[in-house]
Design brief:
Helix 4 links the parallel strand 2 and strand 3. By secondary structure, the chain is an alpha/beta fold. The longest helix has 18 residues. The protein starts with a helix and ends with a helix. Helix 3 runs parallel beside helix 4 and helix 8 runs parallel beside helix 9.
């Protein structure tokens, strides 16, 4: 630990441990392998390594996640979860033994077949979030890096339509996840129409600004007004077509993202506003944890990565373990030999919570993107 981290008062850590509820959201990544090659994917920026969690461990982790009784468990990537279809279906079956827990699978949508779809319908699986990024075959194939991707996704959607109709089931709900880049920022209205055809909702987010794969794909600042108009028209269109429309960002975030306004900078959020331990303790005793936490993820979410580590946020490095920055290893925890409960209430996660309350950012947080910042606001109602 750094000297600053070591100086955190143990009474503060003990108090945090006492008041921290179970996670509301658990995300588990079965694999970092993928059958596509999306041009904006974070996987381009890391050294590829083998998955470190055996299949039986994934199932036991799923059972541990259910023991928290969270609002939502997401089976995600990483890579493409359905490259391990049997494991994913087994995980889904475990989750749906608990009626109060909603289940989500985030997928590129290219690997569905009728047996997988029928099983998900029979489980009354809640949500399938499909990463599709354009309304036309040529553009979507380009963005996702493989010819035929759009066609395979449509085939999967049609299977869902067929069997949901056959079994007269509303499950699972379909959602389109759209990553906005300089190539598709003016295609949002078309995506709303596309979603309406499949009775799907739509969620849009800005491409991550990481220096490698993401930054060259950001929307140019000169196109901001056009993008702003496109978004407004898309929201109006979604309302008229009864399509649920979600954004992972605000207009202020977009201005920061386009370098038109720097006040949204992660560092700027807490500049000159670090709190004392006495101030934090007083706020905690008064039940105001979300009023002072600069980020809510460490209090609400645990992410289990395919590399065998658990983190309080999906934005942490997910590459090969031997390349983890030392500062990340002060916060994340290996799932080998430890239960999720031990990790969630353990010293490392509690130190991360303390840093968020004291407004001290660890290194990993300085690379946070506007999507995570706004999801943190929305998820627990905290507005910076």
């Amino acid at each position: 630990m750094s000297k600053r981290d070591d100086s955190i008062n143990h009474s503060l850590l003990d108090w945090i441990k006492q008041i921290t509820p179970p996670p509301a959201h658990v995300q588990i990544t079965p694999t970092n392998e993928c059958n596509l090659n999306c041009i904006f994917c974070w996987r381009h920026d890391i050294k590829k390594g083998k998955d470190h969690i055996p299949d039986d461990k994934l199932l036991s982790l799923t059972r541990e996640a259910c023991a928290f009784q969270p609002d939502l468990i997401t089976i995600t990537g990483g890579g493409e979860p359905l490259l391990k279809p049997d494991v994913v279906i087994s995980m889904a079956s475990i989750i749906k033994q608990h009626a109060s827990i909603r289940g989500e699978i985030i997928t590129n949508g290219t690997l569905f077949d009728k047996e997988i779809v029928k099983k998900l319908i029979s489980l009354k699986w809640d949500l399938i979030s499909i990463s599709i990024n354009a309304s036309t075959e040529s553009l979507d194939d380009f963005l996702r890096g493989r010819n035929g991707t759009y066609e395979k996704t449509i085939e999967g959607l049609e299977i869902f339509v067929k069997f949901k109709r056959k079994f007269n089931s509303p499950f699972p709900h379909l959602k389109f996840n759209v990553v906005i880049t300089k190539h598709n920022y003016n295609d949002v209205q078309n995506m709303v129409n596309f979603a309406a055809e499949y009775n799907a909702s739509i969620q849009v987010r800005l491409v991550n600004e990481q220096p490698g794969s993401g930054r060259p794909l950001c929307i140019p600042a000169e196109n901001y007004e056009e993008f702003k108009k496109e978004l407004k028209n898309a929201e109006n269109l979604a309302h008229s077509k009864h399509v649920d429309f979600y954004k992972d960002f605000t207009e202020k975030d977009v201005k920061y993202y386009l370098n038109l306004e720097r006040s949204g900078d992660v560092k700027g959020i807490i500049s000159g506003n670090q709190l004392s331990e006495r101030e934090v303790m007083e706020a905690l005793k008064n039940g105001k944890i979300h009023d002072i936490a600069v980020c809510t993820f460490p209090f609400t979410e645990i992410n289990v990565f395919a590399n065998g580590y658990a983190a309080p946020c999906g934005g942490f490095f997910q590459g090969v373990p031997e390349e983890y920055p030392e500062s990340d290893l002060e916060i994340i925890e290996s799932v080998e030999g430890k239960s999720l409960r031990e990790i969630w209430y353990g010293e490392k996660f509690n130190r991360m919570r303390a840093l968020m309350l004291l407004h001290h950012f660890p290194r990993a947080c300085l690379a946070c993107n506007v999507n995570f910042i706004n999801v943190s606001r929305i998820f627990r109602g905290f507005v910076h």
